[in-house]
């Protein structure tokens, strides 16, 4: 597709003038004369066939058309600057960007960053937490950690670890048996994607061979991390990923006395095919080493 765009110099002049509200300050920003800025903007207005500024004494004000164009150019130039800065910084100091879910980033990656820095002091980690699936190319991501069944075509895939879920709660609740579950809210969180194998309370009760309570008290969250925090605070019983509550179990902030353990999905490390950057390879190896450590107390 051929993009029929005006000259970049005219777009830069417009963006600077709109940002400063002044041709003079825009000229100073771009290291040209105010007359040059005025000519560039006039040429842009002729290209689009509509006025983009109202010229006033010592001030220029965007027209409605200019107000529509400005945020698009501003965000575009900001995106250019961010990517160029990242590429420049990468040449001087290695940086690896990892994308993962909010809960996995907060509860599995962040606690391990200090150990990574000690092992690889010349590599900067940038963690991008999002529950939305990101595009590795357009988002500037080097490694994506995906949780699911796969497959993941068009990527190099390294299995990380499979997850398991079980009821956990603060020991102050004094839950001695599954019958005591009904005394406390069952803490739940919303799975972003429906799947019959999602580790839910219904599935846990079925695998435990127990009837699911008809109307149990429930405390629901949109984010898994918040559900875990609520369990630590003693607000109920959570069906939680044992990998994500490992530290709380080890510290005695949570206990997990009841089975069964039900299988979750597997975490996978995704990279671009043929990726050969040594800092990315080192980070993938580190992730594998961390996953190889005993996941559960």
TrEMBL record:
<dbReference type="Pfam" id="PF00126">
    <property type="entry name" value="HTH_1"/>
</dbReference>
<keyword id="KW-0238">DNA-binding</keyword>
<dbReference type="GO" id="GO:0003700">
    <property type="term" value="F:DNA-binding transcription factor activity"/>
</dbReference>
<dbReference type="InterPro" id="IPR058163">
    <property type="entry name" value="LysR-type_TF_proteobact-type"/>
</dbReference>
<keyword id="KW-0614">Plasmid</keyword>
<dbReference type="GO" id="GO:0043565">
    <property type="term" value="F:sequence-specific DNA binding"/>
</dbReference>
<dbReference type="Pfam" id="PF03466">
    <property type="entry name" value="LysR_substrate"/>
</dbReference>
<dbReference type="GO" id="GO:0006351">
    <property type="term" value="P:DNA-templated transcription"/>
</dbReference>
<comment type="similarity">
    <text>Belongs to the LysR transcriptional regulatory family.</text>
</comment>
<dbReference type="InterPro" id="IPR000847">
    <property type="entry name" value="LysR_HTH_N"/>
</dbReference>
<protein>
    <submittedName>
        <fullName>LysR family transcriptional regulator</fullName>
    </submittedName>
</protein>
<keyword id="KW-0804">Transcription</keyword>
<dbReference type="InterPro" id="IPR036390">
    <property type="entry name" value="WH_DNA-bd_sf"/>
</dbReference>
<dbReference type="InterPro" id="IPR005119">
    <property type="entry name" value="LysR_subst-bd"/>
</dbReference>
<keyword id="KW-0805">Transcription regulation</keyword>
<feature type="domain" description="HTH lysR-type">
    <location>
        <begin position="6"/>
        <end position="63"/>
    </location>
</feature>
<dbReference type="InterPro" id="IPR036388">
    <property type="entry name" value="WH-like_DNA-bd_sf"/>
</dbReference>
